[in-house]
From TrEMBL:
The entry's keywords: Coiled coil, Ribonucleoprotein, Ribosomal protein, RNA-binding, rRNA-binding
Entry-linked Pfam families: Ribosomal_L9_C, Ribosomal_L9_N
UniProt feature coiled coil, ranges: 51-78
GO annotation, cellular component aspect: ribonucleoprotein complex; ribosome
rRNA-binding recorded as keyword: yes
Biased composition (Basic and acidic residues): 164-173
GO BP terms, alphabetized: translation
Family: Belongs to the bacterial ribosomal protein bL9 family.
Protein name: Large ribosomal subunit protein bL9
NCBIfam families on file: L9
Organism taxonomic ancestry: Bacteria, Pseudomonadati, Spirochaetota, Spirochaetia, Spirochaetales
Length: 202
């Protein structure tokens, strides 16, 4: 069936594109959801008159995708999972899990745009997740898959390091205060001695 897309459809096309799809796909999904209309002279003429407005929207989407790509490329997500001692996962990493982490980081990305090679993520480690943005624009987000035990150990080590640094800073502060107090005492003693010497001379 020949249709005209009324909105962007992942892996099919963008608003205003004319496509030939299977009848079932058109009747069961594209037409009922309003994602497309049947191609005919009337609909073709309507979309031709909207061509400038559609292109303007596409330009805005391209600019938005470029900006989003820059932010996502610099992003690192950490996914907490249940894993065995060897690092083997109990289960698999899904696009839903990545979508949830992206949302926590402030990015609203449709799940169908997130490509996770679940068959290749079987162990804890660092991976790359492909995110389709707009047209041929896509981003690779760094994904650290870590076990809950690893993260707890890391958090504990960080807390201990922070406590040690704070204790060291406090000790240095106390030592500085003590040195200052000694200096003040020495100054007072010297001043008193000077006064006594002056009185004796008189």
């Amino acid at each position: 069936m020949k249709i005209i897309l009324t909105q962007d459809v992942v892996n099919l096309g963008e608003e205003g594109d004319v496509r030939v799809v299977k009848n079932g796909y058109a009747r069961n999904y594209l037409l009922p959801t309003g994602a497309a209309v049947i191609y005919n002279k009337t609909n073709a003429a309507i979309f031709a008159s909207r061509a400038a407005a559609i292109e303007k929207r596409k330009e805005a989407k391209r600019a938005e995708a470029a900006s989003l790509k820059e932010k996502l490329d610099a992003l690192t997500l950490t996914l907490k999972v249940t894993a065995g001692e060897s690092g083997k996962l109990f289960g698999s990493v899904t696009s839903q899990m990545v979508q949830d982490e992206l949302k926590k980081a402030g990015f609203e990305i449709e799940r169908k745009k997130i490509e996770v090679a679940t068959h290749s993520i079987k162990m804890t480690g660092t991976y790359s997740v492909l995110i389709h943005l707009y047209e041929n624009e896509s981003s690779h987000v760094k994904l650290i898959v870590a076990s809950e035990a690893e993260l707890k150990a890391k958090e504990k080590a960080e807390a201990e390091a922070k406590a040690a640094a704070e204790a060291e800073a406090k000790a240095a502060e106390e030592a500085a205060a003590e040195a200052e107090a000694v200096t003040e005492t020495e100054t007072e003693v010297e001043a008193e001695a000077a006064v006594e010497t002056a009185e004796e001379e008189n």
